[in-house]
Amino acid sequence: MSIDKVRSYFRQWPGMEERILEFPVSSATVAEAAKAVGTEERRIAKTLSFMLDEGPILVVAAGDAKIDNKKFKGTFHKKASMLKVDELPELVGHPVGGVCPFGIREGVKVYLDQSLRRFPTVFPACGSANSAIELTIPELETYSRFAEWVDVCRIPE
């Protein structure tokens, strides 16, 4: 199970595995996750998956952010093309609803979108459709092993 991979991944750091939250309800969508956690939707750190020529990548963005195709193409030199639901477990290592930047397949690069920097803490998923973890931005940087910060989203007014 994908959440077990994330638990195992977090065991590298004492106390991190215990911080994973599991809910009796779904947290698969931004709205469901915000309700389960008890926070605003924009503080959910959604993980979006795309295919580039060199392979799959993940972009972690704020819950209210939307991919800006022009910015995405300017950054990655390719049109934004999301992975299909059935490709996620094989290419990334997690199923839809639980995609996160932790315990992913070797070679999948993680990018953090600037939209996250507005918050002291955010809530990414932990590999299942009913899990999350609260992390500070520096913690997210550490545990996601991100490649770099990017600006590929727009935030609604």
TrEMBL record:
InterPro entries hit by this protein: YbaK/aa-tRNA-synt-asso_dom_sf, YbaK/aa-tRNA-synth-assoc-dom
Gene3D superfamilies membership: YbaK/aminoacyl-tRNA synthetase-associated domain
Domain of life: Bacteria
Domain YbaK/aminoacyl-tRNA synthetase-associated per the UniProt entry, residue ranges: 28-141
Classification via CDD domains: ProX_deacylase
Name recorded for this polypeptide: YbaK/EbsC family protein
Organism (species): Faecalicatena fissicatena
Lineage of the organism: Bacteria, Bacillati, Bacillota, Clostridia, Lachnospirales
